[in-house]
Design goal:
Elements: H1 13-19, E1 27-32, E2 35-40, H2 47-55, H3 65-73
Antiparallel strand pairs: 1-2
């Protein structure tokens, strides 16, 4: 297995399946001696939460959820 110029490697499918690693999974690295250890991260990513916090209050249409749902259901 080779490391790309960007420091990327492909994790073999057998390992991804065994660890339950899906696209966008968070992983953590640790080092023991001269060995790098990859594991699924203990805590989920906070990216989604940060995205929602960033978007909160940005809507400008001043419509309620019920208004938006009514608009999307019109024929």
């Amino acid at each position: 297995m080779r490391i790309t110029s960007k420091g990327q490697v492909t994790i073999p499918i057998e390992i991804r399946e065994k660890l339950g690693l899906l696209p966008d999974s968070e992983v953590a690295f640790s080092i023991k001696g001269d060995t790098a250890i990859l594991r699924k991260a203990d805590t989920p990513s906070k990216r989604g939460r940060r995205l929602i916090q960033t978007m909160r209050g940005k809507a400008t249409a001043h419509l309620s959820t019920d208004d938006i749902m009514a608009l999307t259901r019109k024929d």
